[in-house]
Amino acid sequence: MVPPPATASQSEKPAEYVAPKTRAQRLDELFAALKRERNEKAAERTANRIWQEWKRSDSAVVDLMMQWSQDAIDKKKFDVALDFLDQVVTLDPGYPEGWNRRATVHYMMQNFSKSMADIEKTLELEPRHFGALSGMAQIMKDTDRKALAMSAYERVLEIYPMLRSAQNEVASLSEELTGEAI
């Protein structure tokens, strides 16, 4: 007996299954691209993609509370925003952006120590969080700790070398610190 002729699908090698990338893998690739990028606009696009990854919590409830917190922030209802963000960090304590957003609200309310505590938690969960590091640098600058501010901005630039605002802050603080040393 002669075997039936092979069909196209039988004769082709099966394609290897490629598992979808995890969030951590996508972030690692984006951070590597961000560090290599020498075009400011391209770097900004990559940073925006990182922010998009950070914003997704994998929980519809947390995502909704984050949206409600942003709406409250936009209306300058910071106490309402904090209520939502307190729930976010309780429901998902491993979600860095919940801590970062709460740090931002504390900063807007001039609660620098609470903001710093939330920044530290953000950085514990995501050490490359250039937004949290920028917030830390701004608090240091606002509280007249210029050397610490410059150090934090330099950490930002290690992660996101083309961030113009951080470049400008390092240059300005460097001049101020050099002038104070004379």
Word description of this protein:
- With 182 residues, the chain is mainly α.
- The protein folds into two domains: 39-126, Alpha Horseshoe (Serine Threonine Protein Phosphatase 5, Tetratricopeptide repeat), CATH 1.25.40; 128-182, no CATH class.
- Helix content is 74%, strand content 0%.
- The protein is built from ten helices and no strands.
- The protein has helices at residues 8-11, 23-36, 40-55, 60-74, 78-91, 96-108, 112-125, 130-142, 146-159, 164-181.
- Helix 4 (60-74) runs antiparallel to helix 5 (78-91) and helix 6 packs antiparallel against helix 7.
- It is flat.
- It starts with 7 loop residues before the first helix and ends with a helix.
- The model has no long low-confidence stretch (mean pLDDT 93).
* CATH homolog superfamily of the largest domain: Tetratricopeptide repeat domain
Give the overall pLDDT as a whole number: 93
Give the number of domains: 2
Low-confidence runs of at least 5 consecutive residues? none
Give the amount of beta strand, in percent. under 5%
Helix content: over 70%
Question: What is the H/E order?
Answer: HHHHHHHHHH
Given helix and strand content, the structural type is: mainly alpha
CATH class of the largest domain: Mainly Alpha
* CATH topology label of the largest domain: Serine Threonine Protein Phosphatase 5, Tetratricopeptide repeat
Q: Tell me the overall shape.
A: flat
